[in-house]
Each structure stands twice: as structure tokens, then as C-alpha cells.
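We emphasize that the prediction below concerns an isolated chain of 71 residues; any contacts that depend on oligomerization or on bound cofactors are therefore not represented. The input was used exactly as deposited, without trimming of termini.
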Amino acid sequence: MGSPQYRIESRDSLLGSLLPSPNFSHLYADRSLAVAVAVKSVADPTRQEVRVVHIPSGEIVFRTTGSGKAS
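Result of the prediction step, given as a C-alpha cell string:
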């Protein structure tokens, strides 16, 4: 497996048994796995923003809408 290149970030609290710790500083080598864990770690992905960041480039490769506002 390659070196870890993806990090999960959020301003909101992230919950879930898939996260290794409350500080969610775990890094992922697989983009798809990082996205899956990110989505499963928020109660409502339509209201809470969570991002997956490619560490070497700083590019956000996935982001939920997380507007927190009803349309």
C-alpha cells in the first residue's frame, strides 16, 4: 500500500466507529476509503461540511455541501 496522502477535515464534530480517534488525524493512502469514512463520519452530510484533502497538493478532492441552510 502507498504512503498516506489523504486527510479528513471538518469544522463540525465527526463521529463514527470508522474514525480511529476524536482528533481524526488519521491519514489515508486510498482516496476512496478516505471519502467513504468522511461521509460516514457526519450525522447529515447535507448539513455538515466534511472535506477530504490531498496532502501533497492541498487540493480538496471531496467536499459535502454542508451549507447548514434549508433551500
